[in-house]
Each structure stands twice: as structure tokens, then as C-alpha cells.
Amino acid sequence: GAVVSQHPSWVICKSGTSVKIECRSLDFQATTMFWYRQFPKQSLMLMATSNEGSKATYEQGVEKDKFLINHASLTLSTLTVTSAHPEDSSFYICSAYDRVEKLFFGSGTQLSVL
Amino acid sequence: AQKITQTQPGMFVQEKEAVTLDCTYDTSDQSYGLFWYKQPSSGEMIFLIYQGSYDEQNATEGRYSLNFQKARKSANLVISASQLGDSAMYFCAMRASSGGSYIPTFGRGTSLIVHP
What we know:
Chain A is mostly beta strands. Chain A has strands at 4-7, 10-13, 19-25, 32-38, 44-51, 57-58, 67-73, 76-81, 90-97, 103-105, 109-113. Chain A is globular, with a radius of gyration of 13 Å. Chain A starts with a strand and ends with a strand. Chain B is built from no helices and twelve strands. In chain B, the strands form three sheets. In chain B, strands 2, 5, 6, 10, 11 and 12 form a six-stranded mixed β-sheet that branches. Chain B has a four-stranded antiparallel β-sheet with strand order 3-9-8-7, with no helix packed on it. In chain B, strands 1-4 form a two-stranded antiparallel ribbon. The chains are: A mainly beta, B mainly beta.
């Protein structure tokens, strides 16, 4: 299947710092990528839809200024958690449809804010 | 609005037996896609199987098959010959149009435990 690469796999940071998470489609072009947050033993919660060359579409309740999304190319979307706090600690995962419209995921990023 | 319902929070199955994980969906679209994913404790979302709404045959991928009943709007996952490594969370998902975009919709998931 298609490959979506996500880095880093885990990150520990101090409160107040910013963390950038990258999501790359390795063997296909993705004009749209999706960013999710997942709490333990719960389903995926869509945070935003990342659109290449335009602004991301955020879900209701997601702070745009805290979770900055940039989709500068057809193969790369980034999520930056700005001024991270302990409540931002979570599992973040990205996904994209491949050329035959099957949905593939990155491996996820576990963020821990101290 | 699109909706996926997984009514089984947890399932237990004995090794080597078959198990069915339930999924029902709701959409007004004629063209849509249905997916199943496995999420082990490592967190990665592993693509298992896909069924298009116009596919006449049920999808199969190795030990996984999707029992697609369009009229009943159900897309159950059948795992044959369960293995200990199948223990994980399983999510059913749908791709359908929502105001022109194709945002995937996920169910709450089913936790499968395979015991020896």
C-alpha cells in the first residue's frame, strides 16, 4: 500500500516550547491531508484538514493559533503545536488518500509536554 | 451527515477461531468507500481492507474479509483463524462526500483480545 511517513515518533518537550510534526506522502501526491488527535482508548478526533497551497480547515473547538498547519507541497504537511502545555500531551496522527482513494496513515507521534 | 457505528466495545475470541466485528454506516451518498484499520498498542493505524460502494464482490485480503450488505448498510469485518497478534483495536471508517469534501468518518472502535 501507499506510504505515509510521520516524524518524530515521539517527542518530549518543556512547557512553553513549540513542537513540529511532519507528515510526508512518499509515493503519491496528497493535495489533502488530515490531522487527528487520539486520547487513550478512544477513537480518532479530527483536528483539521490540510490543503496544499491554501489554509487548513479546522474542526470546531480546535485552536488555530495553537495548532498551526502548513501544507506547502504536494507531499508534505506539518503540524506545529505552539507554546505546548501538559494538556496538549496526546497521540497525533496524520492520514491521506492515495491515488485510488484509499486512506493511509502515518505512524503517529506521541507528544509529552512536561 | 455521515456516521459509523461500532456497537462492540470489546470482543474476545479463542486462537484459531473466526471472529466478526460489526460496523454499520449511514450516508446519503451513492458513492462511498468503507475501510477497516487495526491499531495495535504501538499506535500505528494499519490498513486492512477496503470496499467500494459499487463493488459487487465482498473484499478479501488474506485472513480478512468484509461482509458488505449494502441494503442493511453494514460492513462487518471477518477475521478467520485468529492469531494472538490480532489482539488490537479495530476501527471501521467511511469515505463519503460531506459538503464537497471527503473527510473520513470513524467509528468508536472495537477492542479485540485473542486468547490461547
